[in-house]
Transcriptional regulator SlyA (Clostridium coskatii), 149 residues
Amino acid sequence: MSSLDKSIGMYINSINRKILRFLSLNLKKYNITTEQWSVLLSLTEEDGVNQKQLAKKVDKDQATLVRILDILERKKLVIRKKSTEDRRSFLIYVTPEGKKLKQEVYPFIEHLFTNITNEISKDQLDLFIDTLNKFEKNISIEEKKISKK
């Protein structure tokens, strides 16, 4: 029997690294990293969220997210405003420049993914995404078991 870690875990990790390298190379011309892009994209889908909500949504720890937001703010792509409900909390908003960048980058990224999913049917992609969702669900279940110990 072959190792599931080698056949699944390592292969997913390898493909993930290749996709990230591919995206990083292609995002350079927009002066944005894949991590910055994921945060910006998330904010364009739900503007005005606090850092804690955003960290959970983009699956980043608070310190990493703060560094990404600092960079995005320096690039004038996002702005942080104090929350009127909780003065210790900041809400993050996409600036017009950030929205413009999203409008430029999003179709480009979609085109890249169209190319890398070439010759993969919609049914295969749906099954793949469903399988990844099950992986994520099972990992969450296992993480909860561990955190209870």
In short: The mean pLDDT is 92. The helical segments are 4-27, 34-45, 51-58, 62-74, 96-116, 122-148. Strands lie at 49-50, 78-82, 90-94. The first strand starts at residue 49 and ends at 50.
